[in-house]
Amino acid sequence: MKRRKFITFLGGAVAALFTVHVPSTILAQDGADWVTGFPRQPVHVAAWPADRKVAVSFALFVEEFGFGQGPVFRPDLASRSPDLVNEAFRQYSIDWGNARVGRLFKELDAPLTVVLNAEFPGKHPSAWKEFRAIQPNAPIIAHGMNNTNRMLPLGRGITAQKAYIRETLDLIARTTGVRPTGWSSPSVYSNADTMQAIAAEGITYTIDQMDSDISRLQTPEGSLVLLPYPVVAIDMGQHLARMKSPAEIETLWLDYVLELANEARADPARGATTVVIGIHPFVVGTPDGAAAMRRVLLRLKKDDKVWLTDTDATLKAAGLK
Description:
By secondary structure, the chain is of the alpha/beta class. It has a single domain (3-317), classed as TIM Barrel (Alpha-Beta Barrel), CATH 3.20.20.370. It has helices at residues 3-19, 24-27, 84-107, 120-123, 125-134, 158-176, 194-200, 235-241, 246-266, 281-284, 287-301, 311-317, and strands spanning 31-32, 39-42, 54-62, 113-116, 140-142, 182-183, 205-206, 215-219, 222-226, 273-279, 306-309. The longest helix has 24 residues, at 84-107.
C-alpha cells in the first residue's frame, strides 16, 4: 500500500467508524451481530477484583510496515524519494518508542498487552529482544502478518483467511514462544468471514468489534469473546487523522475512563465496564508522548473504581478464560 493511499485509507476508515449508525437493539448486544449475522449476547460482570468497576487495558501495537510504507506524519513530504522525514517518524517508533513504552509500564507496575504483527520479531530482532526483555510476560494478541502489504485476504473466501490466520499464529509462536489466543485484524480491517475463520484457528477473543462492552459471539466454528476497543480512544486515529497532541489525547483518555468511574459511583448497582485502549509507539513512545502516558497511568491508579489490567486478566476475572 502506497503512503498516500495509507493515510487516505486511515482517514476514511476512522470517519466511517464515527458515522456508522447502529440501532439501539444492536447496541444492547442482544441478538444478531451487525457484521456477521451470528448470535451475540452480552457478558454481564457485576464488579472487577477489589470491587473495581472499570477495567482498563492499554494495548501497545508493535507493528511492521516496511520501508517507504506506513503512517505518515508529514503528508506534504510524502512524495519525496526517499522520504526521510516520514521514514524517520516510523523508524523512531521501532528503535526507541516500543522500548520506552515498555519501560514506562514496568516502572509504574502497570499491566500492558502487546498487539503484534507476526513479521516484526523477524524483521527487527534486536528491537524485539530488547522490548520482550522489558515486558516478558505481557500477553500477546496476534495482529496479522504486517500492516501494509500482507493484511487479511478479504474477498478471497474463508479458506484463504483461515490459512492466513494460521500462518500468522505459527510465525508468532516460532519467534516468541507464545501462540496467541487473541486477535486484532491489521488496520482493524476484517469482514463477515473473519470471526468464523479466527475461531476455527483457535482464537478465543478479539478486539475487532468496537461498538460495545464485553459480549460473546457464537460462530459455526465456536464462540468468541469480543472485548471493546472503542475507536474514539485509539491514539493513532486521534494523532494522525485528527492532529491531536499527546497532551490532548491524555485529556480524552482521562475523561473517557473517569466518566465511566463516575457513572459507577452514581449507580452502585450498575454492572462493571471494560475498555481496551490502543496505543502506538510513534504517539506515546516519544518523550512527550511518554510524559502524557505517565500522567494518565498515575491518575488512573488513584481512582478506586478503576482497575488497570491486561486482556488476559480481564478474561480470567470475567470467568471467560
